[in-house]
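About this split. The held-out portion is used to measure sequence recovery: a designer receives only the structure tokens and must propose an amino acid at every position. Recovery is the fraction of positions where the proposal matches the reference. Here is one held-out target exactly as it appears in the evaluation file.
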């Protein structure tokens, strides 16, 4: 009974307090829903209007939270104007391991989501000149599970991990990432009025990562609840940008 009451309260808080997308939608070009030819799974893609093949473009992979409260379409709409303004390619995969309602329990499908996300990065590297030194993976709410898992396990692919009001479980992470992951740029932030589970798990993430040698940027956003603030992650990504490492049309590093 206690567990079901907690889930009901959490779902109500999510529905009432900020999954709505409030970012501008009038970008010069539109997002596209596509299928990954390797996995057959769907994703949304936004390529900024200023993209040209002769200049490497940073990439943002954004992980949605618990469906139906948060879905990939929300994320491409949340990020596309920031992608346009900062000349970043944005990809929002439709994921399966993002159920934040189970708290910090076992997450089914994490390896499948990892394979899918890495396949998408590879696909982008073949189709576009992406900046392989500057690829951020970010998550909102239950999207924290794949953001932490995929980002920390693949420090050779990702430069930045940004957890935005995210679920976290050390039990789904500890011992599963290489030591090189401590060199990643990591930020964890949440709203002052976020649900208690999100605040608590965000604080646990900060404590755990620091105890393992990570340098973690943190913010508690005053007056905000479970709301979308991708601009904070974008600014962190910009501030920690690394020297560009372009890729050719064949996906090879230049």
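Reference sequence for scoring:
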């Amino acid at each position: 009974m206690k567990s079901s009451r907690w889930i009901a309260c959490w779902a109500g808080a999510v529905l009432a307090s900020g999954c709505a997308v409030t970012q501008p939608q009038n970008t010069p070009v539109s997002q596209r829903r596509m299928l990954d030819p390797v996995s057959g799974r769907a994703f949304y893609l936004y390529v900024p209007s200023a993209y040209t093949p002769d200049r490497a473009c940073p990439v943002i992979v954004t992980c949605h939270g618990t469906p139906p409260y948060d879905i990939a379409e929300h994320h491409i709409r949340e990020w596309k104007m920031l992608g346009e303004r900062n000349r970043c390619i944005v990809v929002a995969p439709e994921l399966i391991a993002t159920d934040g309602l189970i708290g910090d329990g076992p997450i089914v499908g994490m390896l499948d989501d990892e394979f899918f996300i890495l396949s998408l990065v590879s696909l982008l590297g073949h189709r576009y000149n992406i900046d392989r030194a500057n690829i951020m993976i970010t998550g909102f709410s239950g999207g924290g599970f794949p953001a932490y898992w995929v980002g920390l396990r693949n420090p050779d692919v990702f430069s930045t991990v940004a957890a935005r009001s995210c679920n976290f479980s050390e039990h789904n992470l500890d011992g599963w990432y290489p030591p090189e992951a401590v060199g990643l740029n990591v930020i964890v932030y949440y709203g002052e009025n976020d649900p208690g589970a999100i605040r608590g798990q965000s604080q646990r993430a900060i404590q755990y990562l620091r105890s393992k040698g990570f340098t973690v940027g943190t913010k508690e956003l005053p007056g905000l609840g479970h709301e979308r603030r991708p601009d904070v992650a974008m600014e962190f990504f910009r501030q920690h940008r690394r020297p560009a490492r372009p890729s050719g049309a064949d996906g090879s590093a230049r």
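Annotator remark: The helical segments are 2-16, 72-86, 110-127, 144-153, 196-211, 230-239.
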